[in-house]
Amino acid sequence: FFSFFQKKDILHKIESINESSNQNVITSEIITSLEKLEPQFGLPSNSLNKSGLISSLEAILKLQIIKKTVLSLKTTKFDKTNQIHLKMVHELWDALRPGSKSINPENRNFEEIGFQGKDPSTDFRAAGLFALYCLLHYCNQNPTRARAQLKLSRNAKSFFPFSVVAIRFSFLLYEWICVDDLVDNLILSSQTNFDNQIYLLFGLLFSSFCSFWKENLYNLTNFPKVERMIFEHFRWHLKADTLSSFN
User: Is the pLDDT of residue 174 over 60?
Assistant: First the structure.
């Protein structure tokens, strides 16, 4: 029972990690707990490979922080009375429709940038602020591409709701981050920070969707098929470690 409770204590330390946690302190506490378990498993004292263990724990803690951050954003609802949230969604409008910046924010029709109605808040329900951060970052970093894709989405022959589809891919990316070991490996191997890595994944997925859609002139009835193709294609490149050629 003693070892059982010690192991539960280790797991609790890992689960409790967040952005404000001191990872070095937690890593040290976990190693101390593991050292106490050595005699119970018949291991000599100081038999732990501490350098390897520290590297493994740092990776586990990094993933824990990333997943908790994404979960926090995903579960934070878009609040149309929150000035920060409103500012972000109007920044999205300005990025996609720079020629319409002068339109009074209260009179902006968000259907024009691919939301289902004039009030964009309802479309963020599935993925919360995580979707807004992904979409805004993508459009700010790739304005010319995003505007071309918005134009494509508004063409009668290739119509799709631009922002709604982007939100859908952010939700699927969130689910993938939570459960897929291949995404874990990609995040851990990346030399860029968490934000850039997640936004890069989102950008690859959404841009690939737009390319597939444009090449084949799909309609909305084909969306589930295209979505499945994009993720299968993406996962194949993850396995083959050829993500740089994905798109």
Answer: yes
